[in-house]
Write a structure and sequence with these properties.
Helix content: 40-55%
Strand content: 5-15%
Number of domains: 2
Structural class: alpha+beta
Largest sheet: 6 strands, antiparallel
Strand order of the largest sheet: 7-8-9-10-12-11
Shape: globular
Number of strands: 12
Mean pLDDT: 87
Length: 482
């Protein structure tokens, strides 16, 4: 059967990200990678110098905040104030600007755009298996593969410094991550396309490979954390966020982090708001595969609220919607999150998708081994916003290890897992054979990446100091502890 016009509009046919590899043999693709190595020697990736006329990082953050919910921006700045690592998390735009001036091979992948170490974690697959993968795609865009691995490396160095690691321990963590990325890419280069697509980093693999490398205390912590993730099937999140009022489930009010729409100053008449939200759900449902749209159609709207999430995302319009299924105990929480242009777009080019929510969903589905069945997008033209949004299930066993609590051995091993996972995500969309050939069998790239990470960690410290000065002077307003 032919593809219908409706299906084609919902899921447009996507061109290969790296057209230069189309039609080439394996040998020719490997030669392409080696040619890139000659043009951009691997040692050059060690280089980082602030570009002449480098934009003021505080100014970049202010520009980015101009389109966000003004009353929430001080919360964003307050969270970034916590440490140089939380600053790095919130300063993806600053690093994107810096990465644009670093050497690049011209080999393009679907990049995460914000691949710091806290943006990896555990979540439930549609088959209810716990899997480990990249879990944040707000900035995803086709871009050089180097940008993602450099952000991961820098985050390991910055987090290590915050945790009191020695420079040698920080460097070892980056070297281990770089080596695992390179070796994983070699392995994926030797696989067929389907084998790469079906390669999963399951949680039980994490336990088997890394558990014995931890100290006794860290093993105990890891067992407790992973057991909590497995036991948490969404009920804990529902218990925290909802309560029964007059026999009807409602979202609790926890201002300013969680505010039911009816409590917002500009809220509409309840009847009008309910009708508007119904149209939002109907529009979102049309972007789902037919079976998943059918599943959502069986749920009814119960309540909605504005929610503050993350660090860098604070101030973006984000809502949660509570839906009921068979009865009032059969609950589904969806998160509707605003999607702006990727921070990479000013340097890697605009998205091929007119709807930024669709950009996020398409990128996530391309990079992840398995994705949330409720992923969709819409453009509301309502709900106090006219931008693009994407939708996912709010809590589906999602869990990330606390980076700030890691010791050197834990972070080194966790960085390995993140790097290997990133390589698998890149191998799905980019020319893994060319990238593998570029990286080669030696540790030249690994050492270069370690040098880059150390240099960028120092730059991040300088930017963090400038940020703190801006807050102290009153140029920025930060609310801490929220």
């Amino acid at each position: 059967m032919g593809t219908t016009a409706a299906t084609s509009a919902r899921h447009p046919r996507r061109a290969r990200l790296d057209e230069a590899s189309a039609g080439l043999t394996v040998t020719e693709r490997a030669a392409r990678g080696k040619a890139a190595r000659a043009a951009v020697p691997r040692e050059k990736h060690a280089d980082f110098e602030p570009a002449p006329g480098r934009p003021d990082p505080v100014g970049l953050l202010q520009d980015q905040s101009a389109t966000r919910v003004a009353e929430l921006v001080p919360i964003r700045y307050g969270r970034m104030m916590a440490s140089p690592f939380t600053f790095l998390r919130g300063a993806a735009l600053v690093m994107a600007c810096d990465l644009a001036g670093t050497p690049a091979t011209g080999l393009i992948v679907q990049a995460c755009g914000d691949a710091h170490v806290s943006n990896f974690g555990i979540f439930a697959s549609p088959e209810r298996r716990l899997v480990f993968d990249v879990n944040d795609f707000d900035e995803t865009l086709p871009a050089p593969w180097e940008w993602d691995i450099k952000r991961l490396a820098a985050s390991l160095a910055v987090a290590g410094a915050v945790n009191g690691f020695s420079r040698k321990q920080q460097r070892n963590a980056v070297l281990a991550a770089a080596s695992h990325y390179r070796r994983a890419m070699h392995r994926f280069a030797g696989l067929g396309d389907l084998d790469v697509w079906y390669s999963h980093a399951e949680l039980d693999e994490l336990q088997a490979k890394y558990r014995l490398l931890l100290s006794a205390g860290e093993r105990k912590l890891a067992r407790a954390d992973l057991a909590a993730a497995q036991d948490r099937d969404g009920r804990q999140e529902l218990a925290k966020l909802t309560r029964v009022v007059g026999g009807v489930p409602r979202i609790v009010s926890q201002p300013p982090l969680l505010v039911p729409l009816a409590d917002l100053p500009s809220a509409e008449h309840p009847g009008e708001l309910t009708a508007r939200l119904g149209r939002v759900i109907a529009g979102y449902r049309r972007t789902l595969e037919s079976d998943r749209g059918y599943l959502v159609s069986g749920f009814e709207l119960a309540d909605a609220a504005r929610k503050v999430v993350g660090v860098g995302s604070v101030g973006m319009r984000c809502w949660i919607i509570l839906l009921t299924g068979r009865d009032d105990s059969d609950l589904l929480l969806l998160q509707l999150k605003e999607a702006d242009r990727s921070v990479l777009s000013g340097y890697a080019g605009a998205s091929g998708y007119a709807n930024q929510g669709q950009r996020v969903v398409a990128g996530q589905q391309l990079m992840q081994a398995t994705s949330d069945i409720f992923l969709g997008w819409f453009r509301p033209g309502s709900m106090q916003a006219d931008g693009d949004f994407y939708v996912r299930q709010l809590q589906d066993w999602k869990y990330s290890l606390t980076v700030e609590a890691m010791g050197p051995a834990t972070m080194l091993n966790y960085g390995k897992l993140c790097a290997r996972t990133l390589a698998r995500a890149h191998a799905r969309s980019g020319d893994r054979i060319a990238i593998s050939a570029y990286l080669g069998g030696s540790d030249v790239f690994d050492k270069a990446l370690a040098e880059f990470a150390a240099s960028y960690a120092e730059q991040n410290e300088r930017d963090y100091a400038s940020f703190r000065t801006a807050v102290a002077s009153g140029r920025l307003v930060a609310e801490r502890g929220i």
